[in-house]
Structure formats: C-alpha cells, structure tokens
Amino acid sequence: MFTGIVQAIGRIEAIAPREQGVRLTVDAGGLDLGGVALGDSICVQGCCLTVVAQAGRRLGFDVSRETLDCTVGLDRPGEVNLEKSLGLGDKLGGHLVTGHVDGVGEVLAFEPAGESRRLRLRVPADLSRYVARKGSICVDGVSLTVNRVADDDFEVNLIPHTLEVTTLKRLAAGVAVNLEIDLIARYVERMLAASGPVRGGDSG
C-alpha cells in the first residue's frame, strides 16, 4: 500500500527482455533505501513492483507482460516516480494507493494557471464513473485532487512543489499516463452491486 506522495525521482537505466516480460534496472535517485530489501514493494510510476535485485543505489524489478500491456512508462529508459510502501503508523499524506494501475489516460491539455499548471486528462470510458469532483486519483504514482469532471475527462491542478518533485512536469498534450482510481470508490461500487435492488417494506 502507498500514499501517492512521491519520495524521489528515479530513472530506468536498462531494460532486459525475459521470457514473460522484462527486468528493469532503476537508479533510485534520492530515495531513502534504508530498510529496503529483496522482496519489498516499491511504487514505480504508479505501479507496484517487487525488488528482485539490488546493487548499491540500483534496484532490479521484474515486470510481467500483462503489466506492460496495461501501463505506460515501464518499457523504456526515463525518469520515474518512486515511493516505498506504507508502514503501519506512517503518515498518510495523500490517499490510499495500491499501485495496481486501472487504465491509461491521455493528456489533453497542460497549461499555466498562475504559478501552477492545469492538467486535463482523458479517462477510459470504463473508469470515468469512478472520478468525482474533489475526489482523489493517482496519476503516474502521484496523489491528486480532482477539480473538474466531464463525461470523458477530468482536470487537476499541479502546484509548483508537485511539479518540482515529480515527473509530471514533463507532461504535454498527447502523452499517456498511468491512472489508478480511488480505492474507496472501487469498493463502494462492489458493495452496491452485491447488495442487489432495494426492496420496499410492507405498507400494511
């Protein structure tokens, strides 16, 4: 489990093909690697990956073909957002994030808004119902608050600090991003579907 508060920007340095996916070598950048061990989970650009190798500040992750097929940014060298998994008692600064990417969105606009930037994203049709104004959403591993919602897109505001400490500053129209919907919205829908139709009581 994660919070969507990025702890460092790392960089995918190498990608080695494997039988059912790839092995990533990631320079952890400024991430605190204290306590990080083989088998630990790290959120890499919004995707929960398991540490399978470590050499100094370089971490190895195996990424399956299924994961590559439903995410972006894990199949080529480049900067990535990093966050270590949440421990019991840690501060929850963003929102509950699983690191299980639900779909890929597309940047429609990335425009100045004073000192901040206004980011408008197209959301896949099957995920649009989970996006709510003032609700939370995870974009490339970053916890953000939704400011506006339309039928197939939504808008968030990125403050200067967020731009400085994440990879979101390199976004532009047409770029694809990893999206994870709010965990609470997912379970609310499941519970409502399982409960079936509400029956009225007897009027007598």
Low-confidence stretches: none
* CATH architecture verdict of the largest domain: Beta Barrel
Q: Termini distance?
A: 50 Å
The structural class is mainly beta
Mean pLDDT: 93
Number of helices: 3
- CATH top level of the largest domain is Mainly Beta
SSE pattern: EEEEEHEEEEEEHEH
Number of domains: 2
Shape: globular
User: Helical residue percent?
Assistant: 10-25%
CATH domain topology of the largest domain: Elongation Factor Tu (Ef-tu), domain 3
**Overall number of strands:** 12
Using only CA atoms, what is the Rg? 18 Å
Protein model, in words:
With 204 residues, this protein is mostly beta strands. The chain folds into two domains: 8-84, Elongation Factor Tu (Ef-tu), domain 3, CATH 2.40.30; 103-191, Elongation Factor Tu (Ef-tu), domain 3 (Beta Barrel). It is 12% helix and 42% strand. It has three helices and twelve strands, in the order E-E-E-E-E-H-E-E-E-E-E-E-H-E-H. It has helices at residues 65-69, 160-165, 183-195, and strands at residues 8-18, 21-27, 41-44, 47-55, 58-64, 78-84, 103-113, 116-122, 136-139, 142-149, 153-158, 176-180. The strands form two sheets. Strands 1-2-5-4-3-6 form a six-stranded antiparallel barrel. Strand 1 and strand 2 form a beta hairpin. The longest helix has 13 residues, at 183-195.
